[in-house]
Amino acid sequence: MHAGYNLADIMTKSVVVASERWPLAEIAALMQKHKVKCIPIVRTTDGAVIGIVSRANAKRSRATEVARWLQDGGQPSAAQARWHSMIFSLLYQP
What we know:
By secondary structure, this protein is α+β, with helices and mostly antiparallel strands. It has helices at 7-10, 24-34, 55-72, 78-91; strands at 18-19, 38-42, 49-54.
């Protein structure tokens, strides 16, 4: 870092956050809307940051669920397929 700069000078000050209770689809939509690749997650009761969800986390979650369907020999329901299609389109955009 250059001399004379500190984190306050370069950090994002208007941080977009999501509640721990939000569904992944809403968080993915928030990432797309604000053109960010990760969202801090805050506890509903006190607003404390308890984690972060990245596009990579969401992709892994989606892939794990699809793999589980395939392993079980089943097919997703129509609603599950629509949900995964929406998540896929939100997460795999530039």
